[in-house]
Every structure is written in structure tokens, then in C-alpha cells.
Design a protein that fits this description.
This protein has about 290 residues and is of the alpha/beta class. The strands form three sheets. Strands 3, 4, 5, 6, 7, 10, 11, 12 and 13 form a nine-stranded mixed sheet that branches.
Length: about 290
């Protein structure tokens, strides 16, 4: 405080103690350390080189202690306030919306604003508390927790395979009509695991790109081509025989479903509560059981 205020008198006023008490504390500290921390003149007080280094480290320690206090306070307080979430439209409609009622019943002091979109939002600049994302995470600065897994498969309708034939290996995909998810950062590139274990990149323009997974599935069902989709989208259609696995011999492509949130030393209670809820809600969802 002496360094911050530039002298003993102002530091004493700031802390509400006597000037002599401040001077006594500083002198005692210098005696214990065996070093002069402050240069004192009749006009001003300034830190020595050693004093400034000690001040910088002490300030960090005090900040850490303050954050520790805030962490304890937040963990003891009930989760509350507005929780703003970004989630892909198809996952939000089919899987998140059905469980939100249970979450709101469990945490009545939380208000949820779920924004459905099919793009990667900038969490901090756009005012989101968290987002749900599927697959490889691109922004390493964010904190993340896996809440479930899904498999990704290439699927097409029986009618499409009857008309255009079925691919038997990855290279055959170059001769087929592919349906692409236009919001993927990788563009019209599929990363497909080969039987050898390597990941092959399938690059083709395709003849339809859509920024919505459900629309891609509908296009595949209609016989427009082969789509590469997560199981939480194709599972029901596969069970009903509306689509089939394009190349069943290929290894499963397991993708994580993640809750991502801004970096920081501790997580807001409302965010932590929602993530814990999702992990529990989707605990029975295996990679291919959606």
C-alpha cells in the first residue's frame, strides 16, 4: 500500500491505521528480510530495486489469495443468473431441448438463453457463457469438458446405392455424389479413418452443401448422395432402414461432444452446474447409441 499510495501518510489513511503503525510494519519486514525495500526522503517514498521485485511478487500472491476467497464464496453460493448457451441447431433441438426442463426444475434460480446456430461463435466477444461443440476443438484457449461421445458415419439411402452403386473403399468416394456440411472449418474435406488406422482426407466438391445437419440427413434419405454425419442425427433413420452405412468395413470414427467455456481460474457456479447436469443426463449415451 505504501508503494501504491507513494508514501506512509496516504497508505495509513487508505488502511485506516496510524502512520507509525505502517512504518513499524515496513521496518519489521525489512529487518526480517535483511534488505532495504523502500528509499525514504522527506519528500517521497519509492521502492528500491529489491523492494520493487518483492512488491511485484507480493502483489501476485495477494491477487491469488483474493481469487481463492472468491472461489470459495462462489462454490458455496447457489447457482443463479442468466446462462447463455450456443449450440448447433440439430443437437439443440433433438437432444438438448428435451432435457432442459429437468435442469430448470433442479436450478430454479437459473435462466437459460439457448441460441441455436450452425457456426463457431466467439464466446467472450459475443457474450456466451458456454457452447456445445462436436468433434475436434479448434480454439485451444477455451476450457473444455467432454460430456459424451458420438460416432460419425457415411450414410446414403438404399435407393441411392441401388442407382449409383455402393463404394467398397475410401478411394471409391471420388466417383460418388457427396453431401457436405458447409459450416465446417475444414470445408469440403472429410477425415475418414482407414482400415490401416491412418486418417484419410477425402477432398471433393460434392454437389450439395448445407449448413444444417438435419437437412443433410434429409437429402441423404431423399437419395441425393452420401452424407458424413454423427450418430445422434442418423441413428433413427439407420434403424428404420431409411439410410445405410456406405462402407460398413471402415473403423468407427468416434467424436467427442464437448462443453466449452471461457478460460479462468474458476468456473461460474451456473456453468459448472449445467455441465455437471449434462454429463449426468447423457451418461447412458454410448458413441453409437443416440
Amino acid at each position: 500500500m505504501v508503494v501504491d499510495q507513494g508514501g506512509f501518510t496516504d497508505a495509513a489513511k487508505k488502511m485506516g491505521i496510524s502512520k507509525s503503525a505502517v512504518s513499524k510494519h515496513v521496518s519489521s519486514l525489512e529487518a526480517r528480510l535483511g534488505a532495504r525495500l523502500l528509499n525514504r526522503t522527506t519528500r517521497r517514498v519509492s521502492p528500491t530495486e529489491i523492494g520493487l521485485a518483492y512488491y511485484d511478487r507480493a502483489r501476485r500472491v495477494l491477487n491469488d489469495a483474493g481469487e481463492a476467497d472468491a472461489l470459495v464464496t462462489s462454490m458455496q453460493s447457489a447457482p443463479s443468473g442468466l446462462l447463455r448457451i450456443s449450440v448447433a441447431t440439430d443437437f439443440g433441438v433433438n437432444h438438448l431441448s428435451p432435457v432442459l426442463g429437468n435442469f430448470l426444475s433442479e436450478f430454479p434460480d437459473i435462466t437459460v438463453n439457448m441460441v441455436l446456430n450452425n457456426r463457431y461463435v466467439e464466446l467472450i466477444s459475443e457474450g456466451f457463457d458456454m457452447a456445445l461443440r462436436v468433434g475436434e476443438l479448434e480454439d485451444s484457449s477455451l476450457r473444455a469438458r467432454k460430456i459424451a461421445e458420438t460416432t460419425q458415419r457415411m450414410v446414403g439411402s438404399p435407393g441411392y446405392f441401388e442407382k449409383f452403386g455402393r463404394p467398397t473403399r475410401i478411394d471409391d468416394l471420388n466417383e460418388h455424389k457427396l453431401l457436405h456440411y458447409s459450416s465446417q472449418a475444414s470445408g469440403n474435406v472429410w477425415k475418414v479413418p482407414a482400415p490401416s488406422g491412418e486418417v484419410r482426407q477425402v477432398r471433393t466438391a460434392g454437389w450439395l452443401s448445407v449448413n444444417d445437419g438435419q437437412s443433410l440427413l434429409n437429402a441423404a434419405i431423399a437419395g441425393l448422395g452420401i452424407a458424413y454425419l454423427p450418430s445422434f442425427l442418423y441413428a433413427d433413420a439407420l434403424e428404420q432402414g431409411l439410410v445405410e452405412d456406405a462402407i460398413p468395413e471402415l473403423p468407427q470414427d468416434v467424436q467427442g461432444i464437448y462443453a466449452v467455456y471461457p478460460p479462468g481460474r474458476f468456473t461460474q457456479p451456473k456453468v459448472r452446474a449445467f455441465i455437471d447436469f449434462l454429463v449426468s443426463a447423457f451418461a447412458d449415451k454410448g458413441p453409437d447409441s443416440w
